[in-house]
Amino acid sequence: MKTIPRGKSLVEDVYELVRRRILVGDLTPGQRLHLSSLAADFGVSLGVVREALTRLASEELAVASPQQGFRVRSLSVPDLEDLTWVRIEVESIALRRAVTLGTVRWESDVVAAHHVLRATAPFVDGKANPEWMTVHSVFHAAVASACGSPTLLRVRQELFDAAEVYRYWARFAPKPDRDISAEHAAICDAAVARDADQLVAAMTQHITATFRTVLAAHDAINGPGSAAAASCNHAMRLA
């Protein structure tokens, strides 16, 4: 049994623990989430687990099916295409507003978050580092934080988290020809320079590069051309 912290509500505690397991790949895409097993693991009631999973389902990290219960969100190329397009649109709106409304404090927050991200190893002993995933999320949130819209920030974060599930595929990709650290540096530099066009371009390139890495992983798992065959939007995929 895993002892969970009691600083927040039990539902919040279980939600955060299961969410992290999904994002780091301990709970794999499509895997059934058994309420009784999770309740026993965390030492809480079935009702607490059900409420936590319902929240995860509302954020599209889990799926609730009648008569079948909950499972981790499955991965699909059409879903990834749609998610990527919407993320780019939402991020672009948030970033342009952040550049317009952001203060010097916003700039310093972005620089500080980038410094922590750059100093954190993405992998430890060949496995995804949960701490890197946390600081990566914090950096991206910091860049958009000055947009002035709580609703926009909430939607942006939900899309970011949904995209993180696809990192489960990305681990199977051939070593990508990209420098993720340089991509983050370009985003940080454009934000501090208050160059909205360059910031949007850097973020779009960053998201698109991850999208292509995941497609390469899909081909590595399912055979060459499998991602193209599954695509519902070839024009976007090849753009």
Q: Please identify the structural class as seen in this structure.
A: mainly alpha
Straight-line distance between termini: 48 Å
Give the CATH superfamily of the largest domain: GntR ligand-binding domain-like
Based on CA atoms alone, the radius of gyration comes out at 19 Å
For the biggest β-sheet, the strand order reads 1-3-2
What is the residue-averaged pLDDT? Answer: 87
Count helical runs: 12
Q: What global shape is seen?
A: globular
Return the CATH class of the largest domain: Mainly Alpha
Along the chain, the helix and strand elements come as: HEHHEEHHEEHHHHHHH
CATH fold category name of the largest domain:
Four Helix Bundle (Hemerythrin (Met), subunit A)
Percent of residues in beta strands? 5-15%
Low-pLDDT sequence parts: 234-239
The helical percent reads 55-70%
The total tally of domains equals 2
Characterize the biggest β-sheet. Answer: 3 strands, antiparallel
CATH architecture descriptor name of the largest domain: Up-down Bundle
- Tell me the number of strands: 5
Structure description:
The protein has 239 residues and is mainly alpha-helical. It folds into two domains: 10-72, Arc Repressor Mutant, subunit A, CATH 1.10.10.10; 77-237, GntR ligand-binding domain-like (Four Helix Bundle (Hemerythrin (Met), subunit A), Up-down Bundle). It has twelve helices and five strands. The chain has helices at 10-24, 35-42, 46-58, 77-101, 104-118, 130-144, 150-164, 167-170, 180-192, 196-222, 226-230, 234-237; strands at 32-33, 62-65, 69-72, 123-124, 127-128. It has a three-stranded antiparallel β-sheet with strand order 1-3-2. A hairpin with a 3-residue loop joins strand 2 (62-65) and strand 3 (69-72). Helix 2 (35-42) packs across helix 3 (46-58), helix 4 (77-101) packs antiparallel against helix 7 and helix 9 (180-192) packs antiparallel against helix 10 (196-222). The longest helix is centred in the C-terminal third of the chain and has 27 residues, at 196-222. The chain is globular, with a radius of gyration of 19 Å. The termini are far apart. The model is unreliable at 234-239 (pLDDT under 50).
